[in-house]
Specification:
The chain is of the alpha/beta class. It is built from 6 helices and 7 strands. It has one domain: 3-Layer(aba) Sandwich (Glutaredoxin), CATH 3.40.30.10. The chain starts with a helix and ends with a helix.
Length: 181
């Protein structure tokens, strides 16, 4: 009975309630790019293999969006989710969400989930990226890639130099897909 009362009280405060089995990596919500909607990370990604990328619209690696979309299309039937997180930490993100959205959706045809611009490095990093850094390493530049298994554990991380069609990245994705929830 006490647990029910606590849940009622928390819901009345409009605080998100996370399932006990939700991994630390997925505890939280992020606003979608150019939307009033939010992505509840636990609801959307718990139990699924995930590829997380910190992105920037005006970076030399921005052309990787095309390959990341190809990965999304190749692996989505096997359950892989892809999450792009724009960041201006390296001073290469567009000044507004509209321009970011045009570059991602219009120029590169991205259909995977994209968030609004976030901080991904240092003490001010969002919880998702603090946990990614704790499990592997913080991004040192744009287009760092993190492959996460079904338990919310980083399988492997990859630098910006790793192209989306890299065979080691594909092997890590295969390992994440094969993992048990």
């Amino acid at each position: 009975m006490k647990k029910s009362l606590l849940l009622v009280l928390l819901s009345s405060l409009a605080l998100p309630v996370f399932a006990a089995d939700c991994p630390a990596l997925l505890q939280g919500e992020l606003p979608k790019l150019r939307s009033k909607e939010v992505i509840n990370l636990c609801e959307q990604y718990a139990g699924k293999p995930l590829l997380v990328i910190n992105t920037a619209s005006h970076c030399g690696f921005t052309k990787q969006f095309k390959g990341l979309e190809a990965l999304h299309q190749k692996y989505k039937a096997q359950g892989l989710e892809v999450l792009g997180v724009p960041s201006d930490d390296f001073k290469q993100e567009a000044d507004n969400a509209e321009e970011t959205a045009t570059i991602c959706y219009g120029n590169y045809g991205v259909t995977f989930a994209m968030t609004a611009t976030q901080v991904v490095t240092g003490d001010s990093a969002i919880p998702l990226f603090r946990e990614l850094a704790a499990q592997s390493s913080a991004p040192r530049w744009n287009f760092y890639k993190y492959v996460v298994d079904r338990q919310g554990k980083v399988v492997e991380s990859f630098s910006s130099l790793t192209e989306p069609d890299d065979e080691d990245l594909a092997a890590a994705i295969d390992k994440a897909i094969a993992s048990k929830p």
